[in-house]
Amino acid sequence: MNEPFSPPVQSEPIAAIATPVGVGALAVVRMSGEGVFSITDRIFTKARSPETSLSESPGYTAHFGKLHDGDRMIDEVIVLVFRSPDSFTTEDIVEITCHGGPVVTKHVLKLLLDNGCRLAEPGEFTRRAFLNGRIDLLQAEAIGEMIHARSESAYRTAVNQMKGGLSGKLNGLREQLLQSCALLELELDFSEEDVEFQSREELSGQVDMLQKEVEKLVESYQHGRLLSEGVATAIIGKPNAGKSTLLNALLGEERAIVSHMPGTTRDYIEECFIYDKTMFRLTDTAGLRDAVEEIEHEGVRRSYEKIAEADLILYLMDIGASDYEQEVQAIAELRDKHPDIRLMVVANKTDTVDDSVRRAEGVAEQTGCMVLGISALKQEGLDVLKAEMNAMVEGLDKLHEASVLVTSMRHYEALRNAADALQNARELIDAQSETELIAFELRSALDYVGEITGKVVNEEVLNVIFGQFCIGK
Ligand code: GDP
Asked: How far apart are CA 460 and CA 137, in angstroms?
């Protein structure tokens, strides 16, 4: 049976420019909240049937006309009407498509503010959509991820999350947890009668299964992170090996400057390139240059730690150099210390010696690493290099198509806490501990999962999440 319809409570009207700053053919300024139709009526005259007001227009209609401030015309615009609850925020929404350009849009926005709107805070539209139950927290975050997606894979994952992929999975888990919790709490209510509504063996099995599912999600973060943030790739090697040349060659036409993302620690500019569907984030290697020298000179542990921060290491060497063999030791050492790291040796400057293939094979043999010959200067072997880099992080595409991935640190941490609580619960069950203690752990797991979708709301978390959005989203 459908629940009886009750229109959402509408908050004070907010307005913001929804399109990026700058010159463009068109721009969108939007409003949401109580009274946005009457505000529009005061400043907008329809070209067709001007006698009818916007307040009388049905939802999902578009109206062409003039925007004016008293007698002064501001722009010719198209006004879109969305009626509560059938809108993004579930409130009444008016979207004004005006001509692009910073001055026009500012005039339009000022007009709305002068007529009773408040300037929206970053992410406030999406926050209202969440608070009014239109989307859950995960979907709200997915919108942010989609806007910031820089590769096809990151975009696909965000779309999947927006459609409710991870939400569905978590809601399923929550349901099962709730059931176990409810049964345990019933037992507590009847504690004097010493009844068990579910055998401890059964409960243990169920908790075990839930824990495995949560852990699977926790593990998926390893891949999910690479998708959403890009593969942190470091090019290291001795001075003059050709690192800058390779960096520029890799960035080439696909050069993409990643812009400032407010609220994150990555507020410096990084350079990325996309190969196939994967984004490679070429991290600042300045620190790593020193690291390599340290490795060569004294093999300092600290330098290895720096290197371990990257997802993929390209160790670039000048294969034409007379002393190239001296590096073999450093590479072998790096390999030994970090058997898990994705490390590829790139033998550069193959154009400078005739026996580069033989030399490269020798390095491969002595280090146990994959060695790939290129000439960064002549741009030879770069396609093979990119394909090999992609192969090293392979499986990403297949994974994101097929399954639900955890891509955010916030979700990852909450899931890890949930897995820990489930582990504690299982140990307590197996040790035949008191019902109260078991119920406590299960409740914690439930809360951690609820934090992700927003079933358990924490104001601070909301501020962080929505603060990362741009104004107008
Ligand atoms: P970095 O110090 O490792 O960043 O090295 P650079 O990229 O600045 O390159 C050092 C020098 O080597 C420059 O003169 C480059 O033009 C040259 N170089 C880089 N790659 C190649 C290559 O594949 N072949 C040749 N012949 N020279 C190269």
From this structure: 13
